[in-house]
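In response to reviewer comment 3 from the previous cycle, which asked for concrete evidence that the modeling workflow produces usable outputs, we include below a single protein chain processed end to end. The sequence was submitted unchanged, and the resulting structure tokens are shown without manual editing.
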Amino acid sequence: GGKPSIGLAQQVYCNPGDEVIYPSPGFPIYESFIRYVRAVPVPLHLDESANFTFSPDQLANLITPKTKLIYLNFPSNPTGGVASKSLLEETTRIILENCQPNVRIYSDEIYENIIFDGKQHHSISSVPEMAERTIIAGGFSKTFAWTGGRVGYAVFPTIEEADEFKRLNINYFSCVPPYNQEAARVALESPLSEQAVKKMVETFESRRNLIWQQINEIPGISCQKPGGAFYLFPNISGICENLGLIEKHDSLPLEKQSSPANIFQMFALYEHQVAVLDRKSFGQIGADGKHFLRLSIAAEQSVLEKGILRLKNAGEDLSGLDRFLKERPDLTSA
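The workflow returned the following structure tokens.
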């Protein structure tokens, strides 16, 4: 799929002690793989007030002579944030001014075709002088709703770099099954694909509009309007405060602590049968005190509306939370 090249990039470009800049919140492997190659994780924290993008100055402050790899992901998982063309142009200016030519930009564009409100996707590789510095990564699982196909790709600045990744890929995975390659070819070449993808994106946009409105009506939740992908990333600080969850979390024995949002995630799952993911699932460094959940809208509208109602009920269920914290079924071995 599209995932291996994320880790392989760190193996190819980084030595122990080199620094990797990555978005946080972001796809989990950005952060989790860095320690494996003994590099240094440097999170680029995405600003909720800027709809989960960043400022060029933020990036400039993180770049050092040890920087070897910078990850970008727009549209973003988990936030649905979208980068404007002007942001990418300013980001390019920062990179050209502060980075050596051998620093690579890994542009994860897996959601490039799922974008809303009549906007267009922009790749940093299209900005002058960036094609020779950028790895463009994509895949078929999102655009063609085909997560089981495990077909991804990456485009490299040079043939030599592509050959290095090919050697690693062959030794780790051999190849994508030929029948899946054929299916990917059909998806790319079929005259039916454009309209099918367009219809899917329109459905996602309709769901986004509805669920975004409904979740913002829940007391204690506020949510930015995502510009792409198929996620919402609501701030549940108010729910945590209303339930006294921050104090309750901090009073737990150390081995039972995680984060207030994670406790609410597990409470919602075990007591109200609704599945979400907490902020720390998408980068742990610097995430303390940030109370967010990720919701996927890749489900039927009726299912999503039931889920929103269950989240609302969970946010009001003080006695249920106390019972859950006493029993902690999420920590009980099966």
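The longest strand covers residues 67-73. We consider this sufficient to address the reviewer's concern, and the full set will be provided in the supplementary archive.
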